[in-house]
Amino acid sequence: MAGPGFWGLPAGLLLLLLLLAPWALAEGPLVFVAVVFRHGDRAPLASYPTDPHKEATTALWPRGLGQLTGEGVRQQLELGRFLRGRYEDFLSPEYRREEVYVRSTDFDRTLESAQANLAGLFPEAAPGRSEAAWRPIPVHTVPVTEDKLLRFPMRSCPRYHELLREATEAAEYQTALEGWTDFLTRLENYTGLSLVGEPLRRAWKVLDTLMCQQAHGLPLPSWASPNVLRTLAQISALDIGAHVGPPRAAEKAQLTGGILLDAILGNFSRVQRLGLPLKMVMYSAHDSTLLALQGALGLYDGHTPPYAACLGFEFRRRLGDPDEDAGNVTISLFYRNDSTGLPLPLSLPGCPGPCPLGRFRQLTAPARPPAHGVPCHGSREPATPAATVVPLLAGAVAVLAALSMGLGLLAWRPSCLRAWGGPV
């Protein structure tokens, strides 16, 4: 048994307190939060020619393919309630437009997910409120073709095509693909789709349809065994890895998730520099958005983010540090991918624990767009002029800054458009 230590405390407890002391000193008050989450449960995006449920699509999915389901609404309500509990002492009890800004991609499922999330986060937007007490909360978006923040390049970016081609032509990728040729050939016979020699996203869409149907209690065809579903998931992981992983992962990130990462850091810097009251920015998006962001952070683990998965950035001011500039700010990351458990704390590679802001910026610099922007032109094409700066926080925060505080627009550096094959 451990003997008594100082102050009459057991030696073991004293040692634990001493070990935790640096952490306690490092953890200061929250000053800014950014969260990026995937929409909730949805209907399948598409069917396939031999789908036994194809003729019943309208009855099974009355709101349409790709639309948010009742379960998806519930998931987002629950996520909003989690955020309320986590930030109860940070956010005001009721929504204040100067404190919270919400941005979504221009898809029904992400817009509805943001609204459901806010209904869990703020009591005045919650379901069941009386008509007199209910207050809607704004969700901002831009047209799909103009979204340079939450959607990323493929069709419109020759340089990204070159980087992707380099990954898919690598020996490791080709070896894995060859090992699945017989499997994909059999799957062609089962599904009526052309899969061999086609983009692997086609195989992923088969998996997505099957998983959506299974989640909603629909019987799967006899060929869709657990082993087939596992193999399809492995094929999907190979495809995702080519998009966000090596080779040249940092340059890919500059054209994808690094754009959003740079925006999050830029928002915090401008809020601090201009003294804005903004406390939280929320982004309602897709698994492709989260995957690209994970890639930019060096945190992609081979798994697709589930519905309502949430990646959070928490900016804190360290206690006991007399320095008043950004040098006394740390960033902590968390990932909530399971509503039944606590969120997972994440560490940026090379910076365990709460990471000093300066170190975070330094480590992520290769994955973020340079000041002059990243050209999408291919290596054999002439360079294109730098894109025009556009608002990062569209509308509300920019108007707040410009009109009520006499300040300029919050801006970011745009790049190319579109996700790999579209958001899901």
From TrEMBL:
Domain of life of the native organism: Eukaryota
Residues of the signal peptide: 1-26
Catalytic activity annotation: a phosphate monoester + H2O = an alcohol + phosphate
Record's GO cellular component terms: lysosome; postsynaptic membrane
EC class (word): hydrolase
A Pfam family per the record: His_Phos_2
GO BP term (any one): lysosome organization
Entry keyword annotation includes Magnesium: no
Membrane spanning residue stretches: 389-412
Keywords attached to this entry: Glycoprotein, Hydrolase, Membrane, Signal, Transmembrane, Transmembrane helix
Enzyme Commission numbers on file: 3.1.3.2
Keyword Translocase annotated: no
PROSITE patterns registered for this protein in UniProt: HIS_ACID_PHOSPHAT_1 (PS00616), HIS_ACID_PHOSPHAT_2 (PS00778)
Molecular functions per Gene Ontology: acid phosphatase activity; protein tyrosine phosphatase activity; receptor tyrosine kinase binding
Family that this chain belongs to: Belongs to the histidine acid phosphatase family.
Protein's recorded name: acid phosphatase
Source organism per UniProt: Ailuropoda melanoleuca (Giant panda)
